[in-house]
Design goal:
Radius of gyration: 15 Å
Strand order of the largest sheet: 1-2
Helix content: 25-40%
Structural class: alpha+beta
Strand content: 5-15%
Oligomer: single chain
Shape: globular
Mean pLDDT: 92
Length: 137
């Protein structure tokens, strides 16, 4: 399968949202990336099950990371894997819909390592909440 075919499949599967921070592609000024969930440098393959749609911020912070330290448990946990994990099992939205809350070790580590609550995203989410189109289902 060609990379453009992979990209089309991934975009359709995730409804054009970053699979980590849930930002919509339609309002970002930078293109999103099809990223390797398990990086190629760590043995990840270019296959449908190892590709995710990611905004540039999440992709840049993730880089080649696959795990991190959960500050609550003190244990190392793997990052959220969009093909294997259900987002709602690891994350929740704050009451105002502006912040992503990690509700598991995997969720907390992913929020921390990918900086899912960076100021620019929180500002964007405030506008989207006011417009009535956030948080996504």
């Amino acid at each position: 399968m060609s990379l453009s075919t992979f990209k089309r499949v991934v975009l359709e599967r995730v409804k054009c949202l970053c699979e980590y921070c849930k930002s919509p592609t339609s309002i970002f000024s930078q293109p999103f990336s099809i990223e390797h969930i398990i990086p190629k440098s760590r043995g990840g393959e270019t296959s449908e099950n190892n590709l995710a749609l990611s905004c540039q911020g999440c992709n840049n912070y993730k880089y080649i990371k696959t795990k991190g330290l959960d500050r609550i448990s003190g244990l190392v946990a793997t990052l959220f894997h969009p093909r294997q994990d259900n987002w709602a099992d690891h994350f929740a939205w704050s009451d105002d819909g502006v912040e992503i809350i990690g509700i598991s070790s995997k969720g907390r580590v992913t929020v921390e390592e990918l900086r899912l609550n960076r100021n620019q995203l929180k500002n964007l989410r405030c506008l989207l909440v006011d417009a009535g189109i956030h948080p996504p289902e």
